[in-house]
Design goal:
alpha+beta; single chain; 115 residues; five-stranded mixed barrel; 2 domains; OB fold (Dihydrolipoamide Acetyltransferase, E2P)
C-alpha cells in the first residue's frame, strides 16, 4: 500500500508542477526575446530622399527580420550625430536603427553600402 501512495504522490506532484515548469520556460523565452531586442537593428536599403535640415531620410529598405518588418519604403528620423552629407538619393546604404521612447525607430547610423 505504501508503494501505491508513493506512485499517487509522484503523479500528483508531476501534474501540479508541469504547468509551472511550462510557465517558467515561457518566461525564460521571453527573457531571451528581450535580450534580442537590445541587439543592434541593422538594415540595407536604397536612399530615396534626404533632408539634412529636418534630419530625415526616406529609405526603400529590405525586410528587417529583427523587428519583423517586410521590405518597404518609409521616412525615418535621423539621430543628430548622423552626417547625412555622405549619402544621396539612389545610393545603396547600410543603416542601423534604435527604438525611441515613443516607439518610433530612429536611424543612428547610415553609410554607403560596400560594393
Amino acid at each position: 500500500m505504501n508503494a501505491y501512495k508513493t506512485v499517487i504522490a509522484v503523479t500528483v506532484a508531476t501534474l501540479l508542477t508541469g504547468p509551472a515548469l511550462a510557465q517558467s520556460n515561457q518566461d525564460m523565452q521571453g527573457m531571451n526575446m528581450g535580450a534580442q531586442a537590445t541587439q543592434p537593428i541593422t538594415g540595407k536599403g536604397v536612399v530615396k530622399k534626404v533632408d539634412p535640415a529636418k534630419k530625415t531620410i526616406n529609405l526603400n529598405h529590405e525586410a528587417i527580420p529583427a523587428i519583423s518588418w517586410p521590405a518597404m519604403t518609409m521616412d525615418f528620423q535621423v539621430a543628430p550625430n548622423v552626417d547625412l552629407s555622405k549619402v544621396q538619393p539612389g545610393q545603396p546604404v547600410d543603416f542601423r536603427l534604435e527604438k525611441g521612447n515613443g516607439g518610433n525607430y530612429t536611424v543612428t547610423s547610415v553609410t554607403p553600402a560596400a560594393k
